[in-house]
Amino acid sequence: MKKIVKNLLLIGVAIGGVGVLTTSQPAQAKSYAKVTKYGYNYKESATYFSFTGNYALYTKPGTIKGAKLVKSKKQLLALNASKTGEKTFMWRRKATTNRGAVYYKVETFDHSIKGWIYAGKTKQHSLGMIYYKKTAAKPAGGVQFFSSLTDSALTTEETTHFYRLTTPGTVDDGTQLLYTLPFWAGFDGKTQPNKKSTVANKNDVFVIDNAKTRVREGDRWVVAYDVNRPGIGGYIKESGLTAIPTPKASEGVTINYRDTKTDKLISSFVLPVLGGAKTTDVVDINNFQIPAGYVSDTESMTSKIKLGFANQSTKNVKVGSQLNYYVIN
C-alpha cells in the first residue's frame, strides 16, 4: 500500500496535478538596486546626525546586494541616548541609487561604528541634507540633524565679574587648559589646548565671553579670554574658573569707556590685578561691560578714528591708574 501511495505522489509531482504538490511558476530572482552616483568620501565632517528609528544601519546602502545589518532601528535609538560624545555620528558620504533613493554613510566620532542608512528620495523636499515626505514634516529617512552643543545663557556674575584659573596646570582634564571645543563636541575628540600649560597664567585675569552645554554629557563649558596676554583663550569647564571680587580703584586699573566722537565718559570698571603686582599688562578687555549701543571697532572706520586703547601704552600699567577705551555708536 505504501508503495502504491509513493508512486502516485511521484506521478503527481511529474504532471503537476496533485494538490499541494503542484509545481508553481519559477521564482523571480530578487531585484537589487544599484548605486549610480557616489559623493566624495570624507574622512571626517562637521555635519552630525541622530536617528529617527525608522531605518537600520547597513554595511552597504540597504537595497544593494550584499548589504548586512550593522545596527538595528532599536539599537540606533539607544545610541541616540548615549551620554558620551564619542558615540555621536558624523556624515561621511552620499550615495544615490537607480531608484532615486539616497543613502548616507555615517560614522561615530571614535570610529567604532560606521555604516549606511537610508535618507530619503531625491524627488522629496529637502532642507539641507534632510529629506522630508512633506515640507516641514518629519524626516523621510533614518537621520536628522544633531547639535553636540547648546547655548547656555551667561549668569549676571559671569557678565559682571573677572575670573582667575582655579587650578592652573598641565592636566588635560578640561579644568586646567583652554580648548578650541569642549571634549567630544566634534569629530576630533579632545581638541588640542592652545597651550600645554597654564602655570604661567596663574596671576592672569580672564573674562567670560560665552557658554555652551554638552548635549550628551550635560556639563557646562565657558569661553574665557586672558586680559593680560594675547592669544590665550578658549573653552574650559565652568569649575575651572573662580570669580575675582571687584577691587577698589586703588587696587586695580580703572578702564574708562569714552565716546570717540565727543570724548565723553560713558562708564567705567576696575580691572583686578592679581598676585600683589604693582603693574600689569592689559592686552584686550574683550568688550567687557561695553556700553549698550556701542562697538569697539568697525571695518569701515579709518585710522584717524580713535578706537580701543588707541595710542595709550597698555604695558606695565601701574596699579591705581586709569586707561581710556574709545568706543563708537
Walkthrough of the structure:
This protein has 3 domains: 35-146, no CATH class; 150-244, SH3 type barrels, CATH 2.30.30; 249-327, no CATH class. The radius of gyration is 32 Å and the shape is elongated. The longest helix has 14 residues, at 2-15. The chain contains 3 helices and 21 strands. By secondary structure, the chain is mainly beta. The strands form 7 sheets. Strands 1, 2, 5, 6, 7 and 10 form a 6-stranded antiparallel sheet that branches. A 4-stranded antiparallel sheet has the order 11-13-14-15, with no helix packed on it.
Can you give keywords for this protein?
329 residues; SH3 type barrels; four-stranded antiparallel beta sheet; 21 strands; 32% strand
List the helices and strands and how they pair.
Blueprint: H1 2-15, E1 35-38, E2 48-51, E3 57-58, E4 69-71, H2 73-80, E5 89-97, E6 101-108, E7 114-121, E8 125-127, E9 130-132, E10 143-145, E11 149-151, H3 156-160, E12 162-165, E13 206-214, E14 220-226, E15 233-237, E16 241-244, E17 252-259, E18 265-272, E19 279-280, E20 317-318, E21 322-327
How would you summarize this macromolecular structure in one to three sentences?
Helix content is 8%, strand content 32%. It has 329 residues and is mainly β.
Oligomeric state of the chains present here: single chain
Q: How many DSSP H or I helices?
A: 3
**What is the tally of beta strands?**
21
Structural class by secondary-structure content? mainly beta
SSE topology string: HEEEEHEEEEEEEHEEEEEEEEEE
Number of domains: 3
Helix content: under 10%
Sequence stretches where pLDDT stays below 50 over 5 or more residues = 1-28
Percent of residues in β-strands: 25-35%
For the biggest sheet, the summary is: 6 strands, antiparallel
Q: What is the CA-atom radius of gyration, in angstroms? A: 32 Å
Terminus-to-terminus distance: 109 Å
Q: Tell me, rounded to a whole number, the average pLDDT.
A: 89
Report the principal-axis shape: elongated
